[in-house]
Amino acid sequence: MESLTMESFREIPAGGKPVKRIYVALMLWFVGRAIQAAARVDQAVREEFAALPDEFTFSLGVLPRGPAMIVGKDEEGRVRYRGWRPAGQRIDLRMKIKNLEGALLMFTFQESTAVATARNRLIVDGEVPAACAIVRILDRVEVYLLPKIIAKLAVKRYPDWPWEEKIGNRIRIYAGAILGCR
Amino acid sequence: MFQSAHTFVFCSPAKVLSGNRALENLPVELAGMDACRPLILTTAGLAARGMERIMAAAFADSQLTVGFFAGVPPCPDRELVRALYGLYRDRGHDSLIALGGGPVLTVAKALNIAVSGEPEDLEAAAAGTLESKELRPLTAIPNLDLSGYEMTRYADLASLSLTAPTAIPRLLVLDHRTVPAEDRKTTAAGALLVLTQAVEALLHPGRNHLTDAYAYGATRFIMENLRMVIKNPSDRRRRLALANAAFFAQTAFDNLCGGKIFCLGMAISRRCAISPGLIMGLLIPHGLLMEMDREETPGKDLFLAVGGAEDYALTGEGIGIRKTVDRFVELLLELQSLIPDYPRSIRDIGLKKSDLEELPGAADEITGRGTLDLSEVRYLLDKAWETRF
Amino acid sequence: MYLPGYYEYSCRVKIVAGHDALEGIPALLRHVGARRPLLVTDKGVAGAGLMEIVREAMGDRLEIGAVADDVPPDSDLKVVNRLAALYRENGCDAMIAVGGGSVMDTAKGINIVVSERADDLMKFSGAGALKRPLKPLIAVPTTAGTGSEVTLVAVIKDHERHLKMAFVSFFLLPDAAVLDSRMTMSLPAPITAATGMDALTHAVEAYYCLSKNPLSDVTALSAIGLINGNLLKVVRNPSDREGRLAMANAATLAGMAFSNSMVGMVHTLGHATGSVCGVPHGVCMAILLPFGLEYNRHKRDAVMGELLFPIGGPGIYGQTAPEDRTNRVIAYVRQLNEDLHEATEGRHARFFGEVKDREGNPAVPRERLPDIARTALGDGSIFYNPEDLDYDDLLMVLEAAWEGMPLDTGRIRKG
What we know:
The complex is a heterotrimer. Chain A is of the alpha+beta class.
């Protein structure tokens, strides 16, 4: 019996999903830098950050071992993208996506932030009011980054912004995300 | 609205994850139960259908190594549990994942009892006296090839029948990748088994709001989805609805017990090589007609479950069981037309008239039974014998 | 029946319900290996003689370790730490919590401290802080109700630092919820009405908010049917035992529904109103429920229409065209508030302008509505509401709820 048992037994080593990881890492990097840029050009995003405590820092990442993005306010209150390594940073709010596939569903816009939350894809570790503010910021940034047809799937209510303002800010945010902000 | 006359107890210990990418949540759920080295148990048949690759994908990026045993036979015995006990301990596993139907869950429950305490605990479980300490985490990943006992406290090894509420899996994962399309007969058999458990729960004298709620959900999902799944097995959403129904019905069943249709169907199935669900399908109409003669019949609630809110609302008072029976017979006839070798009668499945004497007694030995009135069982059997659909 | 693309559901609390359910408590504790419970309650419950009933029902089959009957109306961090010390000093090995939401939350808080052998609850806030099962906890609700006997949340206030901490963990769930008609027989009419509407709101919001799933649906429908058949009855006739048991069951069913399916705008605004103006939770729920339906109906019309079946009954449901059903549901809820107002001789408030505090003064001054709207923006339930909510939306609903006027549907911004 024992040899029969061993014949039918195998160990499945931990594998990897390198392509998906790279995609999610890129998206997180871009969104992090876009939030940094949006805080410069969009008043509502600036106000949401201003209402958060001094040097407030949050991370959005994937369990168990990343990728992640960290964004926080510096001593002067400016919003800065702080890279992808949470180690060593003081983080007030951690939003953790439970697994890579969940992150992929969010970043391919098959599940909006609202749907992802409703489907328990995220663990929020920190103050809930701050999490509400961050989700509102993410929603606004998504409206800037995505064409309307996709953004409408990503947010509950597509906002009615003046066209020139939206396009102008969109260009500035893309430029800021790609080129970086000072 | 119905209210139980006596104090009732209800418990459903399982957490259920159902839907898109449900399997990928396994690592984080196991971590929440303090486990990181699961042993997956399944059958050679399921492994051949690609389950190893699916589970590997679910655990990729988790940094966890998992064990995969694909040798569970159709009738597992204690020997296998003994061998797996050694494997589990030697390889340092800390949790179990049962990927499959009845036999896999049976082995997994027995093994979990043994590894969480001592192998001798199996004796206590057979006597129904196992201590109520929580066992190591057991995850169930069943499909549509159902035994009816997967998410219950029962496990029937070849020589040992276990009853242990703590053995009920703590986590249930339903994902279309592990609920593959089955052939029509298997799908129908599973669904009719589920319907039997749900319907008998709605008729049970000890029913309560919770068993009613679960049984209602199970019945609605079957009635709304079975026909479509049989005609179009590639419909993932509907297959999952049937898998959900199985869990709901088994939960109601576990909190009450098996009735005469369930127990007789099981007993007959053991005498001939026909799935119990198909036989139960032939018994249900008669079982329901028997209920019509009772004074206190919960016919209204049953028709609400079988017919749905719209139909129920548009039908007048005094509908009772008759309309429900009509719906069942419609369903049965449709299934028989879609499945050419579905027996039309229990006379056609190799039973002899002499078997009729022994069957009520055999029904009274089925796992999960309540107190059966054997004369009622005999009456049901006789009626079914006389009928050809 | 609706099956979402993905859902999760769990409620592993053992439910024991009946006219003599209390008598089962000793066996429940023995089953989990406990022998010396700490009884936790508040002065109101003790004063109503409910603790006596519990102790008598348990008889001498159980040795009581200690009794704590001074839990304040608002759960408090210092009380949690003090009662944890009482638990340890008396060699207790389990808890029986007899009371409403605050007693339940306090007991859950105590459980964290004694199980983790800590001295300070604060160390365990944060997701994933609890990793192991806690000590046995039996919940005996005395309202019908908050549903806290089946939720995995405990809210504890730190009154010194003006903080509200929410602890969320699977391990916080009680081992059993004991629903006994004797526990709510003496509940005064206004509280019966408010807690009943709390249960109704849980069930209704669970049915139409974003985490809707089959098990939360069936439990919600069951709860709504029971409330429809029994809430007014027990407000008018408090000693209706069957009615009281039905409401107790309804509240637990509603608790199972919303703890898995979450809630939305009604709770978003209700929590904020409670926080800013001290209005009891059930009162806020009753007033805001019709607005939750009105605000979200353009996104959830079909689903809301289904609620007419348990709320109005099969006859009304069958006679009402599908496109009119939601209107009738909203009308039923408003009518229920009116009927409860009458049955409680005016004490059940129908709109915020009518709510009075203990001294008889208006509890919700109109000038505070902007504060409430701002506070509401930070409530987690906002995620689960079908339609988006910003400050202006929240204020619009609050204004209407203050006056008791239906929402102007033209002003709802639809996503």
